[in-house]
Amino acid sequence: MPHTEPDHLVISAATLDAGVAWVEEQLGVSLSPRRGGQHDRQGTHNALLSLGPDFYLEVIAINPDAPVPSHPRWFGMDTVGPEPRLHHWVCRTSNLAEALEKSTIKPGEIEQMSRGTLRWLITIAPDGQLKADGTMPSLIEWQSQPHPAAGLEDKGYRLQKLEVHHPQALEIKASLFDAGMSDKQIEFVTGSPRLAATIQTPSGPRILG
C-alpha cells in the first residue's frame, strides 16, 4: 500500500502578481522575496509560501512571457476565473503508479516533470481539467530531495484544517483512502463544490477559500 498525504495547496489567479497580493492580504504575510519559478512545458509560473517543513502553498498563474503550449495547461489553468481563490490541492504519494491504480477516481495520467534540480511525477488529465471541480487532488511523487518546502523560509504558517466540499465528498474520501491516505486535517463535507483551508498564522487562524 502506498503512503499518501497532503503536499500543497494551489491558489489560482489571472496573474501571479494578483494571486500573491491576495494571499498576502488574506494571511497577513509577505511573499517577498518570491520563491518559485516557471513551468516551461505548461506555460505557467508560481510563487511559494512555506506551511511547514514538508507542506506549502503555491500561487500559480499563466505566464504571459511563455510560449502557448500545444496542449491544454495543467490544473485547468486555461479556464481559470479572474479572481484569486483556493483552486486545488495536491497529495504526494510514495508510489504514484500504485496509488493511481488503487484510486477509484482517476485524477489524470502520469507525466514526468522537472525544473532545475526538482524531478517529479504528477497526474494530469489529457484535457488539463481537474476532477470533481478541483476537490479531487492531483497526485504527485517527488523523485528528488529535499522536498521543495524545505528550501522555503519558515514564517510560522501552518495548515490547521482543509475542508473538501463536494456532492460526492464521501466517494472522493474513499478513493484517497484506497490510495493510502489517512489524514485527520482533511474534512470531507457533502455539499456544493469548494475548498476551504484554515491556516494558523502568527496572528491567529485565517481562512482561504
TrEMBL record:
Residues 7-174 form the Glyoxalase-like domain. Gene3D superfamilies: 2,3-Dihydroxybiphenyl 1,2-Dioxygenase, domain 1. It comes from the Eukaryota. It holds the Pfam family Glyoxalase_3. This is Glyoxalase-like domain-containing protein.
